[in-house]
Design a protein that fits this description.
heterodimer; A: 548 residues; mainly alpha; Cytochrome C Oxidase, Chain A; B: 214 residues; Four Helix Bundle (Hemerythrin (Met), subunit A); 6 helices; elongated
């Protein structure tokens, strides 16, 4: 290039990353941080399962156990799944809508650094007595615990919450104001729609729990009486405040997963997404209904109107069912190829269905009374979060890794990882259904040797180590691939959406040229002709020798 | 590999500016969304207040005295009435500032912003004075039962938002004094004025809920 260049000077890569406002670099920083926290949370999970492998206390004390299971959950929910989806969204959403960056790049960087500070404070809570309160921080347990760890946990959660609010404002403005010409809302990729609804949920639910966390902090440190009955407060009030956030939160953890699966299934089935509009409306209605069901976590408190919350909980099964129908119809008679992203997507569909049906069971009030606080609930939440959120995260990482790095992850290693994870997930969490029905209570470090639960618990522990083992090939895969050659090309999967129309990795400004956007599959239209539009300049549908 | 990508569109390189020539400015939309989340924050505070109040046998709980809008001050009114008047007035001066710059009148905007800033600081100062009298004379603090906790947390968080608004106004005023705004380009003024109105409206609800409703 003969262009005159501005004088350049070298800066260290650390300075580049710390000061960056590029949505792609910020996205990668989110993902790396989330993965580190995933490893921490995973090790804590192994501590839990090792302790429960046999009756008796062999490995940790009951007090340590109480801090471990809470920090495990906080790590996985707030420091792994949420920032991982935020990172993926940060990287992918601006490109998918054809923008050059997020709407507020500097606010975007602020969100990340506030999140990182919150994450460090949360991890530090373990060194200051831990937070033996579970991830739900139920009052008065949380308000009366003397450990400083609880204060750190509360402060860290407030910080990650502020980060989430700023981030969701950024996503919403990016999606509403920075879409490329032709990219109407109803031509947006499903992943962007999922991030849009997720951002709305965050925007309306996180401030509520932030207010509640502040109240816990004041109760603990300044003699406040919000959740203290002797001072006129009400502990059940915390449950309302928490679950008003907590239930939208579970959709915050799963809607982006739905979006990822809806990106991958069409590409690897060589068909458009079945019922795109129904999918959009199902996503939006899951988001709206998410605000009507918080008290189904509180059935046994006796403080809520059961029929209302039971009914709306059942109602959520309808849009979710629409999604399952659309996914299966997308695959129906498609030309399926089973690359690793597709394997994970199929695993997601199979196992998330189990988790979802568990949830529908819990909407039945008498059944919920039976299994409240048992391992049935543990099994339910892990079938939706491990088989749901985690499978979709690995699907997304395998799917978009070539775009982010220009390199394809190793397929053989990916398949080994998938089968280890698939077997491990079922081995760990399916026995917990039976344990729960048999009355084994969660959050307890020990169980009686006479209860007949030893075999199932041992099975569950073995499964947990399968899951842990599945992470090793992934880490090696990423390491080895990053040292390997740039081999992916711009469009390794013959993709449909705009991110495949730019280079891998994309330039800082994302696009030199945008293809015309006439449908929700602009890149497919460009390559193959579609949506009623002939391919541009009468190019051949595919260059000779390019296998589909 | 993808097929060759032709430069197919009529528009030039994608810059953020190219996207949003029509419709609301992104910064303004961002401020509105931020206000939406703030509304949810205060909604939680109000929700907690009314839940506690509804379940309490008497209100305020025994041992605490109701903090009324009536008081020993001027005309038998408490400080709360005075600061309510001040804050509502500041909403009008803020609106005045915005309407001035919409007409291109920088000097008028600066004057109105200055007045708003003074009113805002006065509000905060008088609020601190009320806190001081309540704590030192009436021995009423955040640890005075759930009523004290609610009073200080609700008014305190509102005060923090007033402080945020004051910082915003100060920044806008400093930029205005440097002549950085014009009839066409004054999105920061618009954003701060949205926020200030929001803070004002929240106060009206807080005033009615805390000081008036018995």
């Amino acid at each position: 290039m003969a262009h005159p260049h501005a004088p350049t000077y070298r800066r260290s890569w650390i300075y580049e990353w710390i000061t960056t406002v590029d949505h792609k670099k910020i996205g990668i920083m989110y993902m790396v941080t989330a993965f580190v926290c995933f490893l921490i949370g995973g090790i804590l999970a192994l501590v839990i399962r090792t302790e429960l492998a046999a009756p008796g206390l062999q490995f940790v004390t009951a007090e340590q156990y109480n801090s471990v299971f809470g920090l495990h959950a906080i790590n996985m929910i707030f420091l792994f799944v949420m920032p991982m989806f935020t990172g993926l969204g940060n990287y992918i959403v601006p490109i998918q809508v054809g923008a050059a960056d997020m709407a507020f790049p500097r606010v975007n960087a602020l969100s990340f650094w506030v999140f990182l500070g919150g994450a460090i404070i949360i991890e530090m809570s373990f060194l200051f007595g831990g937070s033996p309160t579970g991830w739900t921080l139920y009052a008065p347990l949380s308000t009366r615990q003397p450990e400083t760890g609880v204060d750190l946990m509360v402060l860290g959660l407030i910080m990650t919450g502020i980060s989430s609010i700023l981030g969701s404002i950024n996503f919403l403005v990016t999606i509403f104001r920075l879409r490329a010409p032709g990219m109407t809302l109803l031509r947006m990729p499903m992943f962007c729609w999922a991030q849009l609804v997720t951002a709305v949920l965050l925007l309306f639910s996180v401030p509520v729990v932030t207010a509640g966390l502040v109240m816990i902090f004041i109760d603990r440190n300044y003699g406040g009486g919000f959740f203290e009955p002797s001072l006129g407060g009400n502990p059940i009030l915390w449950q309302h405040v928490f679950w008003f956030f907590g239930h939208p939160e579970v959709y915050i953890l799963i809607l982006p997963a739905f979006g990822i699966i809806s990106e991958i299934l069409p590409v690897f089935s060589r068909k458009p997404l079945f019922g795109y509009r129904a999918f959009v409306f199902a996503t939006a209605s899951i988001g709206a209904l998410g605000f009507t069901v918080w008290a189904h976590h509180m059935f046994t408190t006796g403080a809520v109107y059961l029929p209302f919350f039971s009914f709306f909980t059942f109602l959520i099964a309808v849009p979710t069912g629409i999604k399952f129908f659309n996914w299966l119809a997308t695959m129906w008679r498609g030309k399926l190829t089973f690359d690793t992203p597709m394997l994970y997507a199929c695993g997601f569909i199979a196992l998330f269905l189990i988790g979802g049906l568990d949830g529908a069971f819990l909407a039945v009030v008498p059944f919920d009374f039976m299994v409240q606080d048992t391992y049935w609930v543990v099994s339910h939440i892990h079938y939706v979060l491990v088989a749901g959120a985690m499978f979709s995260i690995f699907a997304a990482l395998f799917y978009w890794f070539p775009k982010m790095t220009g390199r394809r992850l190793n397929e053989r290693s990916g398949k080994v990882q998938f089968w280890l994870l698939f077997i491990g997930t079922n081995l760990t969490f399916f026995p917990q259904h039976m344990l729960g029905l048999d009355g084994m209570i969660r959050r307890v470090a020990d169980y009686s040797a006479n209860a007949g639960w030893s075999e199932l618990n041992l099975l569950s522990t073995i499964g947990a180590f399968f899951i842990a083992a599945s992470v090793l090939p992934f880490m090696w895969n990423v390491f080895a691939t990053l040292r390997g050659p740039v081999n992916a090309g711009d469009d390794p999967w013959d993709g449909y959406t705009l991110e495949w129309a730019t280079t891998s990795p994309p330039p800082v400004y994302n696009f030199d040229h945008l293809p015309p956007i006439h449908s929700e599959r602009p890149v497919f239209d460009l390559k193959h002709g579609g949506g009623g539009h002939a391919p541009i300049a009468a190019a051949p549908a595919l260059p000779a020798g390019t296998a589909e | 590999m993808s097929t060759a990508m032709e430069p197919v569109t009529g528009h030039g390189p994608e810059t953020p500016e190219a996207h949003h020539r029509r419709g609301m400015d992104p910064a303004l939309l961002g401020m509105l969304l931020f206000i939406a989340s703030e509304i949810m924050f205060f909604a939680a505070l109000f929700g907690v207040y009314f839940n506690v109040r509804a379940t309490a046998p008497v209100w305020p709980p025994e041992g605490t005295e109701f903090i009324s809008w009536q008081g020993s001050g001027l005309f038998g009114l408490g400080i709360s009435v005075l600061i309510t008047i001040i804050l509502v007035a500041s909403s009008f001066t803020m609106q005045w500032a915005t309407s001035r710059i919409r007409k291109g009148d920088r000097t008028g905007m600066n004057r109105a912003l200055m007045l708003t800033l003074i009113l805002g600081v006065t509000f905060l100062g008088l609020m601190m004075y009320e806190y001081y009298t309540l704590v030192s004379h009436d021995d009423f603090g955040v640890n005075s039962g759930v009523y004290g906790s609610l009073f200080y947390v609700m008014t305190g968080f509102h005060g923090a938002h007033v402080l945020g608004g004051i910082v915003g106004i100060a920044v806008v005023l400093a930029r205005g004094l440097r002549g950085q705004f014009s009839k066409e380009h004054h999105v920061a003024v618009e954003a701060v004025h949205y926020y200030w109105h929001f803070v004002d409206v929240v106060w009206i609800f807080l005033f009615l809920t805390i000081y008036v409703l018995r």
